[in-house]
């Protein structure tokens, strides 16, 4: 889990975020109103979440990696900007 102080900070210019193998069980912080509006590349591979929030708010997201997310059973609504989705195991 990320520290609360980090989650309170907006990251308006962040374009790429690699959270691979961070032992995350949730990623709701990614869809906060102040959040990650310019995020284009998101790597969530090898984490432990069973579900994900809708990523529709991430309107510039083009690449999402969910490789080896073995507990994940359902993929949420995704933004129209998404061009590459990796869900391999």
TrEMBL record:
Highest taxon listed in the record's lineage: Eukaryota
Xref: PROSITE patterns: LRR
Organism from which the protein derives: Ziziphus jujuba var. spinosa
Protein's name according to its UniProt entry: Uncharacterized protein
SUPFAM superfamilies: L domain-like
